[in-house]
């Protein structure tokens, strides 16, 4: 049975490993850690298939935590800690118990014994990738940007699959802070699902954005970026308003800074989006509130009065205020 | 009782001696128990009464919850003691020490009866011993007669089962001997719960089994099978809790070690004696208008003596065999957990359960049994009560069929609750008891779904979130089993709950991803999704529009977020609007106006307007009146003065609906 061998080997190897002074057996430990995760995954699949509850992966997780504990001491063994951490991350992400990552992360980041730089590169990249993903979940975009970018930078350029994975999360993050990727990037790594999203952002095309989100909804939900992308709606509105502003400026520069609500409603109607005055007023209010539009709204006259200077400030790598 | 207290005057020394003895004997192996026992016996005179002199620290460490049942049960042992004269046996042979002690004569009689009853050679030796043990428990003639009858039944049954020779009678626990009164009772259908413990004070022989055995008001047949029950219970219960049973098992196992069969009666004697010891101390506590410390001390004594048994090699062996019993049938464990076998309330229940156990035990003794292998149907309670109205009482033991309502009655009860005009607490209470009856009878069908749905809806209307969550989780499992119900409605509620209550994006995303295509098309679910979008983007206009046209009870869930949404909205407006906003507009947009659509008269808005003004003021908004007399929100000033006030009706237990007064005035509902 698949389940039995996975328990025995590490049980025999691990206590011995603990006793060895030097880190000569680290490579072997890596193999063991990797295998235990893979085997546990397969075992769980089999268990689930037979209608029993899949507990093996959880068990693998706790075992690896112990391993981590051993490695997290002084001595040459500690360079292995990051590898084990990454295996743990993979397990937790798979199980969905992402909150368990917190303790491991805390150990790595705050413990004085760990010097992040001395870990092997491959581990660092993986680590940054996973922690970056966690930041995305928490919508902590600057941090997510930093981590995922680090991972991207240090990732081996030939490792396309990995780069793709990193980009899958990095792109929504970058979009949220107002940075658009080049088209060839999406093409090269086959991330076509973002194509329309980016188009929509460029054009201020709300309808396109909503369509794109609906089309790939399942994929986005599964990877967890759906909410991030949804938040891009406000940026799309901003773009739309900016376009209206530009057109108005061309027609009559002196009056351009005043935008009638009706005009916005009309524009939206052209996009086949049916919103009434109250709703658009609300959206405008939100835009102003979040500093995507500088100015104010005069309720009586139903006019958006835009600031004369830079009425549509760029995000400049800062996320939209929440 | 006097003798005990005399003993208690003994110094601790004797107890220590005893312990030393134990340690000495321990490594020597079972056979050496015999000689050692002699010495031990002497010093064992009063380990129990001695215990009170032990420090209470031990008591604290043990943290024994005083279970009145235990105390009173053990008290039974004491009364027997009184009757028999403890002193005679007091050269107390602790039962766990296999000892060949001279025993009182009355046991000899039973031997004869035993032998006469069994045709030698036809029955296995272990069975003979079993019978002997049983007879030894009988105090008087009536009991012995009853015992004989029971024995016959058991043996007949075992023969019929084919287990006569396969059952290890040595380890079979004994059935409970009915006391004189009980013997006269018809052992037919037993319906009323046994509550009168005092009745048993006179027949402590029952205490030969673990405290958790069913009381003997059962059919004789039941007894044989309830015994196998006990095996389960022994296996399942905590170490010290089964100290009592250990004593018996010790005796039982000792049978194996014993070289001479005639030792048996004496060993049997030990058992009661030991029990009496323990019971003694306890009852001493009980009877003397017991102070807590007395009770604790006696309990301590009880456990301490149990602990001292703990490390003999014999004991270790027994533990091993006990744990093996565990492995044999995983189903046993589940049995233990499934029922709380305290009251003898349901004779039927026990008989059926135990019968199933016997069957399964004889079927397959090796390998673990899955829960599904058991004949659960034979074990479920079938209710007989006809009352439509029934208060909810939390069960502490297996339920009595006469208090459980069958399905038809429950349907009527549900209808009654539906139509009832009484307040939430009453209906909640009734529903809880319906739920309990359903659970106990393991009814999982549309009726169950309806009940849970009703309760969930009621809870939502009343704003009782914890209750709602309970029902919701039950409904999830029921729906997952394919039972029909208002899936969509509750899927929508579920979604709304996640949206409105958790700040966790991951939960939200996973709930959303779990919706399938069909669900997403449903009106209620669509509404919930739209609410989600509105909340995420802060679109208050949308939110309150959805609020007005919410299907089912979505409003109730949205209600929980209304306050927050309004605050977000006003904050947003204060920053973006200049110079002012008419309050009437705010009232309209934030759902303050009365619900009559299309009714634009000032009156209909009047109440909404006032409410709005009040709300604004409570949140620190700056209101002005303009030239035409209309109230306006001064946005610039408000943007810095808005705040979220403390909820006024915050109650300590968090739910204003469940006011204390309501609880106290429950009865005249």
TrEMBL record, chain A:
Residues 125-311 form the PCI domain. Pfam families: PCI. One of its GO terms (cellular component) is transcription export complex 2. GO terms for biological process: poly(A)+ mRNA export from nucleus; post-transcriptional tethering of RNA polymerase II gene DNA at nuclear periphery; transcription elongation by RNA polymerase II. InterPro entries: Csn12-like (IPR045114), PCI_dom (IPR000717), WH-like_DNA-bd_sf (IPR036388). Gene3D superfamilies: Winged helix-like DNA-binding domain superfamily/Winged helix DNA-binding domain. GO terms for molecular function: double-stranded DNA binding; RNA binding. SMART domains: PAM. PANTHER family: PCI DOMAIN-CONTAINING PROTEIN 2, UNCHARACTERIZED PROTEASOME COMPONENT REGION PCI-CONTAINING. This is PCI DOMAIN-CONTAINING PROTEIN 2. It comes from Salix purpurea.
UniProtKB/TrEMBL annotation, chain B:
Residues 210-220, 313-327 have a biased composition (Basic and acidic residues). The keyword Transcription does not apply. Pfam families: SAC3_GANP. Residues 1-54, 187-220, 305-327 are annotated as: Disordered. Residues 199-209 have a biased composition (Basic residues). Residues 464-649 form the PCI domain. One of its GO terms (cellular component) is nucleus. InterPro entries: PCI_dom, SAC3/GANP/THP3, SAC3/GANP/THP3_conserved. Residues 8-18, 39-48 have a biased composition (Polar residues). Residues 19-33, 187-198 have a biased composition (Low complexity). Keywords: Receptor. The keyword Transmembrane does not apply. This is LEUKOCYTE RECEPTOR CLUSTER MEMBER 8. It comes from Salix purpurea.
């Amino acid at each position: 049975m698949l389940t039995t061998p996975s328990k025995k080997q590490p049980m025999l190897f691990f206590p011995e490993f603990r006793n060895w002074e030097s880190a000569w057996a680290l490579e072997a430990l890596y193999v063991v850690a990797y295998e235990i995760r893979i085997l546990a995954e397969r075992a769980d699949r089999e268990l689930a298939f037979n209608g029993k509850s899949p507990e093996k992966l959880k068990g693998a997780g706790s075992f690896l935590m112990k391993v981590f504990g051993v490695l997290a001491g002084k001595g040459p063994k500690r360079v292995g800690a990051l590898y084990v951490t990454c295996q743990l991350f993979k397990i937790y992400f798979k199980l969905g118990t992402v909150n368990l990552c917190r303790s491991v992360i805390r150990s790595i980041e705050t413990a004085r014994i760990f010097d992040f730089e001395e870990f092997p590169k491959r581990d660092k990249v993986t680590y940054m990738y996973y922690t970056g993903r966690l930041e995305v979940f928490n919508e902590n975009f600057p941090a997510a940007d930093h981590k995922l970018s680090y991972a991207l930078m240090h990732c081996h350029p030939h490792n396309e699959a990995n780069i793709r994975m990193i980009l899958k999360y990095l792109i929504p993050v970058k979009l949220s802070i107002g940075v658009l990727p080049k088209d060839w990037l999406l093409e090269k790594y086959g991330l076509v699902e973002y194509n329309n999203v980016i188009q929509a952002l460029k054009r201020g095309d709300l309808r396109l954005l909503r369509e794109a989100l609906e089309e790939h909804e399942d994929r986005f939900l599964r990877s967890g970026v759906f909410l991030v992308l949804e938040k891009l709606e406000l940026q799309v509105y901003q773009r739309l308003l900016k376009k209206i502003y530009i057109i108005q400026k061309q027609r009559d520069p002196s009056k351009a800074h005043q935008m009638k609500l009706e005009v916005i409603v009309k524009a939206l109607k052209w996009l086949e989006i049916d919103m009434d005055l109250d709703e658009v007023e609300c959206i405008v209010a939100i835009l102003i509130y979040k500093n995507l539009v500088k100015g104010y709204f005069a309720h009586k006259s139903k006019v958006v009065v835009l600031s004369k200077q830079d009425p549509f400030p760029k995000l400049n790598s800062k996320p939209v205020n929440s | 009782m006097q003798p005990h207290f005399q003993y208690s005057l003994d110094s601790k020394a004797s107890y220590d001696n005893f312990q030393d003895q134990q340690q000495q004997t321990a490594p020597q192996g079972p056979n050496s128990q015999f000689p050692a026992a002699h010495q031990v016996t002497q010093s064992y005179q009063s380990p129990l009464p001695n215990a009170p002199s032990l420090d209470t620290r031990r008591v604290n460490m043990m943290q024994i919850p005083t279970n009145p049942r235990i105390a009173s049960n053990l008290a039974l042992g004491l009364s027997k003691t009184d009757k028999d004269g403890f002193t005679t046996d007091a050269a107390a042979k602790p039962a766990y020490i296999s000892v060949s002690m001279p025993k009182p004569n009355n046991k000899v009689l039973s031997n004869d009866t035993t032998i006469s009853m069994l045709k030698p050679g036809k029955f296995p030796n272990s069975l003979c011993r079993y019978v002997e043990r049983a007879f030894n428990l009988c105090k008087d003639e009536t009991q012995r007669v009853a015992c004989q009858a029971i024995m016959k039944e058991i043996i007949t049954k075992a023969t019929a089962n084919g287990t006569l020779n396969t059952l290890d009678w040595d380890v079979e626990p004994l059935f409970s001997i009915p006391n004189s009164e009980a013997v006269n009772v018809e052992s037919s259908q037993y319906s009323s719960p046994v509550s009168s413990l005092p009745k048993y004070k006179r027949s402590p022989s029952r205490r030969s089994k673990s405290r958790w055995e069913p009381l003997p008001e059962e059919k004789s047949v039941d007894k044989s099978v309830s015994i196998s029950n006990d095996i389960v219970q022994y296996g399942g219960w905590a170490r010290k809790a089964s100290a009592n049973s250990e004593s018996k098992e010790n005796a039982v196992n000792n049978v194996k070690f014993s070289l001479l069969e005639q030792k048996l009666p004496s060993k049997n004697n030990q058992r009661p004696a030991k029990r009496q010891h323990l019971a003694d101390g306890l009852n001493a506590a009980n009877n003397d208008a017991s102070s807590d410390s007395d009770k604790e001390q006696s309990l301590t004594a009880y456990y301490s003596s149990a602990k001292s048994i703990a490390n003999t090699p014999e004991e270790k062996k027994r533990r091993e065999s006990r744990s093996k019993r565990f492995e044999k049938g995983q189903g046993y464990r589940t049995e233990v957990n499934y029922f709380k076998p305290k009251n003898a309330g349901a004779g039927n229940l026990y008989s059926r359960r135990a019968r199933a156990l016997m069957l399964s035990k004889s079927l397959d003794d090796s390998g673990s049994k899955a829960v599904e292998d058991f004949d659960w149907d034979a074990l479920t309670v079938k209710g007989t009560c006809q009352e439509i109205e029934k208060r909810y009482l939390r069960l502490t033991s297996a339920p009595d069929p006469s208090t459980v309502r069958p399905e038809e009655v429950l349907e009527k009860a549900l209808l009654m609750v539906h139509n009832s005009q009484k307040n939430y607490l009453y209906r909640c209470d009734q529903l809880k008891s319906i739920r309990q009856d359903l659970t106990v009878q393991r009814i999982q069908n549309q009726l169950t779904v309806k009940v849970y749905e009703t309760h969930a809806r009621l809870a939502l209307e009343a704003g009782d979130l914890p209750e709602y969550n309970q029902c919701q989780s039950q409904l999830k499992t029921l729906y997952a089993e394919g039972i029909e119900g208002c899936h969509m409605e509750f899927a929508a509620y579920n979604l709304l709950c996640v949206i409105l209550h958790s700040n966790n994006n991951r939960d939200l995303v996973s709930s959303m991803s779990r919706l399938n295509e069909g669900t997403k098309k449903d009106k209620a679910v669509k509404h919930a999704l739209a609410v989600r979008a509105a909340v995420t983007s802060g679109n208050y206009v949308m939110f309150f529009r959805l609020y007005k046209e919410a299907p089912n009870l979505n409003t109730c869930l949205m209600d929980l977020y209304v306050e927050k949404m309004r605050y977000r909205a006003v904050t947003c407006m204060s920053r973006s609007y200049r110079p002012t906003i008419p309050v009437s507009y705010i009232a309209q947009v934030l759902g303050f106006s009365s619900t009559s659509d299309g009714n634009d008269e000032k009156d209909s808005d009047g109440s909404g307007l006032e409410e709005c003004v009040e709300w604004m003021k409570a949140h620190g908004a700056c209101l002005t009146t303009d030239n035409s007399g209309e109230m306006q929100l001064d946005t610039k000033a408000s943007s810095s003065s808005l705040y979220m006030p403390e909820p006024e009706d915050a109650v300590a237990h968090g739910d204003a609906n469940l006011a204390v007064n309501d609880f106290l005035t429950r009865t005249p509902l």
